[in-house]
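Margin note from the TA: students keep mixing up input and output lines. Inputs are the sequences; the output is the structure of the whole complex. Example:
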Amino acid sequence: PGKMLTNISSLLRACAQKSVSLNMFYPTNCFSFVFKCDLHKLDEAPATEVVMTREEGLKYYHIMQTIRRMELKADQLYKQKIIRGFCHLYDGQEACAVGIEASINMSDHLITAYRAHGYTYTRGGTVKKIMAELTGRRGGIAKGKGGSMHMYCKNFYGGNGIVGAQVPLGAGVALACKYQGNNELCVCLYGDGAANQGQIFETYNMASLWKLPVIFICENNRYGMGTSVERAAASTDYYKRGEFIPGLRVDGMDVLCVREATRFAAEHCRSGKGPILMELQTYRYHGHSMSDPGISYRTREEIQEVRSKSDPISLLKDRLLSNNMASVEELKVIDVEVRKEIEDAAQFATTDPEPPLDELCNHMFSNNPPVEVRGTNPWAKLKSVS
Amino acid sequence: MAAAVRFFIRGANSRLSVGTGTGGSLGAALLKLSPSCSSRSKTQRRHAAHFTYQPDPVPTQYGETQKMNLFQSITSALDNTLSSDPTAVIFGEDVAFGGVFRCTVGLRDKYGKDRVFNTPLCEQGIVGFGIGAAVAGATAIAEIQFADYIFPAFDQIVNEAAKYRYRSGNLFDCGNLTIRAPWGCVGHGSLYHSQSPEAFFAHCPGIKVVIPRGPMQAKGLLLSCIADRNPCIFFEPKILYRAAVEQVPVESYTIPLSEAEILQEGSDVTLVAWGTQIHVLREVSDMAQEKLGVSCEVIDLKTILPWDVETVCKFQVSNVTLWISKTCTQQRVTCCILGRFAGRQMKTCRTHPIPPLLPGGCWTHPNLFLLPGGCRTHLSPAI
């Protein structure tokens, strides 16, 4: 029936106005695809017959496109030296952030490492505030004091610079959830490089022992800075590294795979079975950070191949178009909308003033009344308000 | 960029008077020295280093020299070590391709992948592994990618490496271990690429902590650390990796540890620092001479632990104000090193009145990448 409908709809579209008629498209579509899902100590697997509604599809497209454009804009601003410091870009990995968020609630918790712009957005930060934080202005999500690596919002614990240090924190958050009995869980992300840190294994042990509702997610983008996974890890099956923790590995470039895997994992946690480990096989187009060209340890051909065959936004777009769930024009409208939002945010981020200097020492401690802080010489007194 | 500045005022013969109370006259006078240093705070955007690197004179006693910057001098030292010591191995994150600061470029190709190899991302593991390799007889040179990341390895350094010889009654030791790490403010490093953690280690008997001021010093000191029979931590000022260029001997040579160097003689004030701050202080001492007529002695401490007490405290004092200025991101550095100097000072000058101690000159908050570097001393041109 798809083909006939497609033909009719194309005909009608050709006659119709530029505005798109919603009746032309399938409101939902059931995708039955056997997505590769490796399991470790699990008897069940995530569903392979998944349903995506048109609404969902367009939403995922919008969010992924926003993240993509935002990261590319950040790249541009960095090269113009408007963003300084360190900047780790997320483009290529959008499906992970969007897929995960699709299966958890805003009341759940999430913590990740420094490649955090995408998650800041999916967890509720606005593009404006994110970009202003990157440029270090007072309108930034951390008041301009954190920068790229330190962005936070409700139920999103950052944004952490030290590799692997966020994982025990995530387990702690999960403990609080369990203790408070609110049926919330914590999604605790780290990368393939961090997977070799000792504190991660300490966390696996604690989480498993106490059956904490934590989903450990390893975003395996094949390179820990410049080191490929084969050269860093004795076992690159990161989903098995939890040993006694059940694990699954899915394609992190397909937003629906990520969504279903997370849905499965969330159910596992919420049913009280304890932690679960997910590995998302994904890819980043940019280098590790803006100071890494990204081509000294991998070939341009490899990057091109991933871009052409597995780009998450293209995958979703193809799915929507070929299943007649959206039109090219509609997606273009979303693109234009996104572009405008990013431009406005960049404009704001460039023009917003920097945080005032008298806020320099604020929030060092929790204190009331303000505390006196010594400046660079014994007679320079600064004030810390908290 | 961080260093401690010990500011000693020689009492009786000094033409300076140290005021009591706030706004001590000397300090205030020196504060007014630099043009942009004022009590009004203002945001300043820094796009270049706020000091000029002052190269050492060309050394003549070590043979042929070559123009090198800091990272090249480190490479040269490592090259000399790998060629002369068959048990030497270099390991750390990303050292194989040359390192994130290019300190190990070419070494893997020259000496093989079993001598220059990458480790996974695990600082505690790297140092622990290094200790083991050193105990077993290899000359282990471990690299921690940034000094900010040394903290997971803190337990290994302080509890394992430092105490190995002592607790085994000299049966075992890890003297063959040298840990290298890029160190100090660089302007855009913010919280985790700017730290100067030497003070955390400065209270740990059993290890040595060394910080060079330039390429020629770095090579000699690093070779001394490698040769030294104690585990050494060698911090390399990252802001100087490219900025510091001078003539460095091509062959192996050593500069003794625990020997401070008097870079400039002076009669009124002694300034003690290490690492990048030396160059700031040299500018400051010139300014002090020019504008205040104050003659400053500048001492490069070089080895933080064990430090050269004799050279630093050798002048006659009758009334000394110990003034510590630190430009790093760890406030407790100030207190700890202050304590050490104070302790020593009191011991040396017990026949004289105990001087008042003024801590000063440090940002007591984490380094913000927005602000132009965390580089301040009350004596330096403010950034």
